[in-house]
């Protein structure tokens, strides 16, 4: 079941270490894996992982804030919209730092969606809507946002200074 969460190029058999696992890739970069059940309470584990990476890689406050908010938005979307709060379904998070780029990907087990069909939340008819800003925020906070696997996987890249 978990083997299908990431494309072939990303598959690893990590050794669990507390809540997440680490593995060095051929580029000598560290890849952090975290798998959580689709419960909003588990977002705290993602926040903890991002904080750990902030300290480990000396990420500045501005970039940390961007990474934290974008990752929480991505995981929240995966739990709520992708996996429909089904706690039997997993959200897989992968983080990797390679030189000055930090990459974070979030994958759910839902039906997917087309991110290009999302309405612009800054248009007058959507300004009063209580939701619908997650992908918009991710695109504003990350240096690059890509969607894969029919929208079931989002990859965000942050260029570190």
Number of strands: 7
| Alpha-beta classification | alpha+beta
User: Roughly what is the average pLDDT, rounded to an integer?
Assistant: 86
CATH hierarchy class name: Alpha Beta
Looking at the overall shape, the CATH architecture is 2-Layer Sandwich
Portion in beta strands: 25-35%
What sequence of helices (H) and strands (E) makes up the elements? EEEHHEEHEE
Shape: globular
Low-confidence stretches: 1-18
CATH topology: Heat Shock Protein 90
- Individual helix count: 3
According to CATH, the homologous superfamily is: Histidine kinase-like ATPase, C-terminal domain
Radius of gyration based on Cα positions: 15 Å
Strand order of the largest sheet: 1-2-3-4-5-7-6
Index terms:
alpha+beta; 3 helices; globular; seven-stranded antiparallel β-sheet; disordered N terminus; Heat Shock Protein 90; 161 residues
In short:
The protein is an alpha+beta fold and 161 residues long. Helix content is 28%, strand content 27%.
Task: Report on the architecture of this protein.
- The structure is a single chain.
- With 161 residues, the protein is α+β, with helices and mostly antiparallel strands.
- The protein contains 3 helices and 7 strands.
- The protein has one domain (17-159): Histidine kinase-like ATPase, C-terminal domain (Heat Shock Protein 90).
- Helices cover 28% and strands 27% of the residues.
- A 7-stranded antiparallel sheet has the order 1-2-3-4-5-7-6, covered by helices on one side.
- A hairpin with a 2-residue loop joins strand 4 and strand 5.
- The radius of gyration is 15 Å and the shape is globular.
- The N and C termini lie far apart (38 Å).
- Mean pLDDT is 86; it is low at 1-18.
